[in-house]
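Exercise (ungraded).
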Amino acid sequence: MNISERLAALRREMEQESIDIYIVPSDDFHQSEYVGEYFKARQFITGFTGSAGTAVITKNMAGLWTDGRYFIQAEKELAGSGITLFKSGEPGVDTIEQFLEKELPSMGVIGFDGRTVGVNTGKRYAQIAAEKEGRVFYQADLIGRIWNDRPQLPMGKAFLLGEKYSGENTTSKLQRVREEMKKVSANIHLLSSLDDIAWLLNIRGSDIAYCPLVLSYMMVYEDHAELYADEKKFPEKVLNELKKNEIFMKPYNDIYAAVKNINPTSVILLDPERVNYTLYQNIPKKAMITERENPEVLMKCIKNDTEIKNTKKAHLKDAVAHTKFMFWLKHAAGSDDIVTEISASDKLESFRAQQEGYLGASFAPISAFGEHGAIVHYSATPESGVTLHKGGMLLTDTGGHYWEGSTDITRTVAIGEISQREKEDFTLVARAMLRLMNAVFLHGCSGANLDCIAREVFWKERVSFNHGTGHGVGYLLNVHEAPINFRWKEGNIPAQVLERNMIITDEPGIYIEGSHGIRLENELLVCEDETNEYGQFMHFEPLTFVPIDLDALLPERMTEEERDMLNNYHRSVYEKVSPYLNKEEQEWLKQYTRPI
Amino acid sequence: MNISERLAALRREMEQESIDIYIVPSDDFHQSEYVGEYFKARQFITGFTGSAGTAVITKNMAGLWTDGRYFIQAEKELAGSGITLFKSGEPGVDTIEQFLEKELPSMGVIGFDGRTVGVNTGKRYAQIAAEKEGRVFYQADLIGRIWNDRPQLPMGKAFLLGEKYSGENTTSKLQRVREEMKKVSANIHLLSSLDDIAWLLNIRGSDIAYCPLVLSYMMVYEDHAELYADEKKFPEKVLNELKKNEIFMKPYNDIYAAVKNINPTSVILLDPERVNYTLYQNIPKKAMITERENPEVLMKCIKNDTEIKNTKKAHLKDAVAHTKFMFWLKHAAGSDDIVTEISASDKLESFRAQQEGYLGASFAPISAFGEHGAIVHYSATPESGVTLHKGGMLLTDTGGHYWEGSTDITRTVAIGEISQREKEDFTLVARAMLRLMNAVFLHGCSGANLDCIAREVFWKERVSFNHGTGHGVGYLLNVHEAPINFRWKEGNIPAQVLERNMIITDEPGIYIEGSHGIRLENELLVCEDETNEYGQFMHFEPLTFVPIDLDALLPERMTEEERDMLNNYHRSVYEKVSPYLNKEEQEWLKQYTRPI
């Protein structure tokens, strides 16, 4: 079936169900950042392959909403399909909600698969329908009915993360979660965020690319728990571990019926940002819902000492791999060897793969040369990928999963001699990264407070960058992990205070369209510093130990304090990494970590 | 009557009204920062004269809650009264609410004058009573019954602020407020914050020390308004102006009956932070209340161009007065002339009084020498005041009201040679103040984002200060004006974005108990800077032009950038102020604004 045929088939289903407007989001049933093939319903119905976007289909039109990252790609992919592109955020472009308000007829019906829609979004759709005396039909997986060759749900194996890696067993974690339940008088805690479940149960899986997670839901009761997942994914050993903690396996999809059958006298703790609309609607109306952030969110963000010790090991391996890569790149690229964006990325992956305990990439690697560096979400394809040449920079934003944790690092490396402008920009980014890394602050600060320490040097030059300066990092989990970040624009949500043993990235960047892009990213560990009459001071400790390319740096553009920051950092890089290098690499590293 | 007799009289009244616990706060009926003599009920019943504190009286005990600023003073003043001091914030000390929860008997009654209690506090008291199946009796002004020689309500004259000074007439302001009412479908806007009323009506008064305000309430309707205040305060001219805008005078206390008589079909816009509990309770239960910040709060915070032009004039006068004072101080103090904290303060006041259009001090002046500088809220008295001598610093935090606006400035000046430690601390404070003053930022930043720019240099040295780095300043109104500030700890309230034409202070400080205190404070104007593809950049422009004492500064402790900031600032100081000085003062200023 081509797109027109698919749309026609969908409209037949819509008519049968008396649905006026049907919405197809990009999400899976768990509000995951990455989704498996089974869940790519929006891609199926529009042909658009980008990661973000929502399709809205009426009787006589079909639209796709996506954001600025994808305008060009969407225009290409939608060409000839008859689907209208709605450029979200552009002036004069209606939001989906505004579109619904205009297009929904009186007493009309909005349809969607409520499992792919968050609680708050679902509520807004229902509100819009109610204002027209209409309703939502959220039990409608119409795409499922027409998608004949829909991929199967993934069947990745689950595995246990022993206490040697996790640092805390499930018995202890469950106890802490149940204490939080007790505080809000909840006797059921409904969970559907995959990383929260993986953390709680010390299990990992392989159902989603780059995310070692198992598709699952969970209900934690006061004395037992139910895990809704495909039992076939679980080796005997894992099942036994679960049983020990009175955790009982149930089929994945049975959660919906189970929630309907919740005792109406229950008090249910759930996180509306992390539960889908159908689950929420299935809860008996008489039951009491206590909405708050999942307690697992903060618990897993504060790493335990075992996780920290392991993470440092993972980062050292990562630093060795990355330094070897830089040595290779500086010698190979622009020489007679042909190095492309993709082959460079593969080479870096191969250095990581040589490290013990490496499990795979922690996210889709970015390897962007020259002007591609300015495209923040650039992904090299055989078509787009270019050959590296002298007089440009390669930006790599990559990371690995190890048994000892996950990494995320960005370096931008000069190939041959680069321009003065590029060096100025590189120096600005390095200064911002170093200043934030060396910040000292009082306990109580959030990333919203501290972001300005990195931004200040940019803003003085009247430049900026349109992404957060940093995000939390999971431990062999999602590489983007809530609830911490460095974002000065926090909206109305009070930003999470930075606590000891949290891990956050520090990644300012500069992007000059059509010319070059530079980003430098270290991971930082939040540490306690001195306590005195003013309170508990805190500082960061870098976890990433890979040189900042001195070929791209203008020391005279840095203050003495900033040069000291860089020299101290480079001294640590050499001390930590050089023992794992061969003689040639060591000499190179010595040179590239020399004091400036 | 002594305190014991007053407490006995109060307890007789409590018994008559069946009140178990009676609460006496420090507030007037308008949540004002400073209160007139009439409202000092808490002082009357306890003898404690500090500005902050709450008395709680039961049948057999009386307690006073106050904060760290006042522990020593309260201990002294309460001695022998039998009143227990509760040190708020100290470990193990119950809050008033915890005390009420413990002490209120079943079905007990909490009494207070609801006019002196904010809406949210009143609601919490009612909640505590309800949990004991008791109630609050908030109509009980028992102090009024026993305070025979209670001072009269102030009778300060009201006066008009012409458009030449206000920059916008009341007709226009009322129109803008009514547009905001319309947005939330309100047909009544109930106001009791004195500065909001003064701003809206372009009137000023003299009912409260340091605050040019008129005791009043207001109800704004769609087509007219009612002002509840003592008509005798208003000259004919002012009354005529009010009438022109369909604003009708009503007796001050009639507001309570008027609110009771509000049409129950009304929608009332009010600010629960700026309305007292009795007013709120008097609103008919069937009427709808829309709670949000008074629209006047943001409107008056964003000064208009006339106000800015005038404010610059006021600050120039203030700078001339303050520079003359510094010249005098540097010559007089520590010489044969005897200069005390109080005489120095009087001298500064006399220099201000020489300026045209000066109306008086904008707050109680702080003049603190040597170790007194470390007491943030120090107020010199004939008993405490010391004589200045060489080898110490005088901290003055003072300000004036002018027809052209209000000022707030702090300088710390070395008398003779000071210690290396004092110079190091002074330099740290100067660096922080200058860095924040020179910040560039993207529109959208709040003071919570930017505070770290000043704090960062402190935190690097593991020191801090326990007050905000800045606050908004009113225009011939309250010198502490909501809703802007520089405070990294903002709690749950989303901090106000800094907009063009807002005025905010920049006043870091360092306080070494028993030794010295240093604070430097400039007022800053929020200005628009370049707009480019990254957005609208903003910067600050100083309004205050008084030298930073170079005798106390260690230039070698500053970065080149920071020295440039100081030199640029001092160049402006000399350019602006020197034309108004005599030859001798000019030469002195030249020397004290020399480049370093």
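Further reading is listed at the end of the chapter. For now, observe: Residues 102 and 539 of chain B are 51 Å apart (CA to CA). Chain B has 19 helices and 28 strands.
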